[in-house]
Amino acid sequence: MLKNKKILVGVTGGISVYKMCTVVRLLKKAGARVRVMMTQSATQFVTPLTFSALSQEEVTVSLWPESNRSTTNLGVKHIDLGLWADVMLIAPATANMIAKIARGIADDVVSSTVLALRCPLLVAPAMDMDMYLNEATQENLTLLLERGCHVLLPVEGELASGLVGPGRLPEPDAIVAFVESIVKKTPRDLQGRKILVTAGPTHEPIDPVRFIGNRSSGKMGFAIANAAAQRGASVTLISGPVALVTPKNVSRIDVETAEQMREAVMIQAKKCDAVIMSAAIADYTPIKRAVNKIKKDDSPTSGLTLELKPTSDILRELGSKKNRAILVGFALETQNELANAKEKLRKKNCDLIVLNSTRDEGSAFGAETNVVTLIGKNGKVEKLSKMPKFDVATEILNRLAKLL
Ligand code: CTP
Fold it and tell me: How far apart are CA 222 and CA 242, in angstroms?
């Protein structure tokens, strides 16, 4: 899996830097090409010479050329190495480095490289337990996860401070296995492909303060956009109202209503090789939107009737077009799941349907996991086990890559 893979290792300052010597050796043994960059504080623990000998490559410690007269190193290694890499691993990642990359600070070679990075980023935090559990560190890690970074959690045990708790860098074997698993999930097979993803609910306004919505969190669609971008696709994400951070290297268009979603999809779909419709688009919208807030009628016999009209079925419209992109639809069902999903695939002329049943444990609205069944145009039905949404996205994209 790692043969000829280009792995950029960013080493930052912590007692566990010594473990990275074994990690670099194991990566080399697995056939990977490894380049190491270190922060100044990392060099307090292990010298660049050690990593240079292990990686058989020059180690980068500074943003600046060693000599002002150097014409070979123009001081753009943080860009060049970022472009060179298939994946970048920062391990151990200190609280300081995590804070810097979460907030976009670029004042050393590792953080500067991250800012210009296009490939998947893997981060293995390691620090004292109180630093790790600190709200700021946790918030920064959450931000990185939301942007699509892969985090290898530290393990619990005895720490350099003598305290016992979470904060230890996992053992080298576990780090290499983690790198391998991410490399496997992020093949560059969508390079040069343009993919449109829709996500989230739509809000259909009743009056200036109220709307009809649904419980979609948008997490599945965002995971697909993220996974596709990490496979090299140029991704446009059209999102309804959600509280999610845009994944790295994804271009996002925000919409509110089903009609706005339709307009945006029709413009973008023309430019795309594939469209993945994971948005939960309203099927009905109020006929009239009240200009002012609808006031409450206090009489005991009062009631309010809303008149609704159907929205356009965007997926069906896409499916009816000639020379259409590859279409992946979703089907959210509460009963007769398989039959309903197959009917949607046929009616909307999709190439693949992702079936979600509200009856499956682990597929709740807003959950981090999902349980789906994939149904191909050829009738092939594959029920996948419960897995994180990024992994569900990977499975969907594995099928899509074969259809493109
Ligand atoms: N969809 C769409 N436009 C709509 C409604 C749904 O493009 N106005 C898409 C969804 O994005 C999804 C697929 O159609 O990919 C199926 O959505 P779903 O809500 O499961 O089914 P509906 O077609 O709305 O049918 P029903 O609500 O009766 O199950």
Answer: 10
Other Cβ atoms less than 10 A from the Cβ of 333: the count is: 17
User: Do the Cβ atoms of 230 and 188 come closer than 8 Å?
Assistant: no
Distance 326 CA to ligand 1 centre (A): 17
State pTM to two decimals: 0.93
Determine whether the shortest distance from the Cβ of 357 to ligand 1 is under 6 A. no
pLDDT, position 290: 95
The 3-state DSSP class for residue 373 equals: strand
Pocket residue to mutate for ligand 1, from 204, 281, 309, 334, most atoms within 8 A of Cβ: 281
CA–CA separation, 94 and 12 (whole Å): 6
Residues of the chain whose pLDDT is less than 50?
none
Segment 165-213, tens digit of pLDDT: 999 999 999 999 999 999 999 999 999 999 999 999 999 999 999 999 9
pLDDT of residue 71: 53
Closest CA to 126 of 88, 163, 89, 152: 152
Best residue for ligand 1 mutational test, from 203, 238, 277 (most atoms within 8 Å of Cβ): 277
What architecture (CATH level 2) is domain 6-185? 3-Layer(aba) Sandwich (3.40)
Instruction: Count the helix, strand and coil residues of the chain and give each as a percent rounded to the nearest 5.
Output: 35, 25, 45
Pick the CATH number of 194-292+304-403 from 3.30.450.20, 3.30.930.10, 3.60.21.10, 3.40.50.10300: 3.40.50.10300
pLDDT of residue 35: 97
Residue 314 Cβ contacting ligand 1 at under 6 Å: yes
- Same fold for the domain at 6-185 and the one at 194-292+304-403? yes
Taking CA atoms, 95 is separated from 101, 103, 328, 375, in Å, by 10, 12, 40, 44
**Domain residue spans of the chain:** 6-185, 194-292+304-403
Phi, psi of 242 (to 5 degrees): -140, 165
Catalytically annotated residue among 68, 73, 134, 214: 214
Tokens of 296: 């409450």
